[in-house]
Amino acid sequence: MKYLWDTDSCVHFLNGAEGIIRKTQSIGAENICTTMVNIFELKFGAYNSNRPGSNLARIEKLRRILTILDDFDDEIGRRKRCQAKLLFFFRPFSLFPLFRLTPYFSENFF
After folding, report:
1. What is the longest distance spanned by two Cα atoms in the chain?
2. Which range (19-23, 84-88, 101-105) has the least confidence?
3. What's domain 1-71's superfamily in CATH?
């Protein structure tokens, strides 16, 4: 049986929650997958954290352990960095237009 982790499951694993670590050991990491959307969310959180470098490194380790569905990684780092920068400058505004503008800004400004 395969398991599909959501972002919360990935975060609990990255933070070393005992329950999810035990479950991962019992079912085997080869039976767990997550989606590229979850990786996007993890990287967005990492870029907005106090320790982006170490958090991004932990996410890369997770990517080597789990099967990632929809793998088109070239865009991830660039767009998440751009969203984090835009969010910093446009915090009072709605996020919906921000996410629609991200491809334009990431290609032209960052």
Report:
1. 47
2. 101-105
3. 5'-nuclease (3.40.50.1010)
